[in-house]
């Protein structure tokens, strides 16, 4: 695991080495970007699973009213509803 502590402490002697600091910032941004992309993929996949449960629980029109619609308990479901238009059913 890389240690980027010196980037956040101006008084650290390593912070004053501009080439090292610049390289470390670039590396830190790349690692952070990969982590953010991974996390967003996980959120999207979870949303897709929850959305499928909701759609499947609604049944088909004319199927009768004997079904119970699934209500997601996931806190982020409503916040991620903007993804609903981009998902193929």
From TrEMBL:
**Superkingdom:** Eukaryota
UniProt domain MADF: residue ranges? 35-83
Q: Which residues form the signal peptide?
A: 1-23
Task: Provide the alphabetized UniProt keywords.
Answer: Signal
Provide the protein name.
MADF domain-containing protein
Pfam families referenced in this protein's UniProt entry, alphabetically: MADF_DNA_bdg
């Amino acid at each position: 695991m890389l240690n980027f502590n010196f980037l956040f402490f101006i008084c650290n002697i390593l912070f004053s080495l501009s080439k090292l600091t610049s390289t470390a910032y670039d590396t830190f941004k790349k690692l952070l970007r990969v982590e953010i992309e991974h996390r967003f993929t996980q959120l999207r996949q979870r949303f897709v699973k929850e959305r499928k449960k909701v759609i499947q629980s609604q049944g088909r029109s004319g199927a009768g009213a004997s079904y119970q619609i699934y209500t997601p308990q996931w806190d982020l479901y409503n916040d991620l509803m903007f993804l609903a238009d981009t998902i193929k059913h």
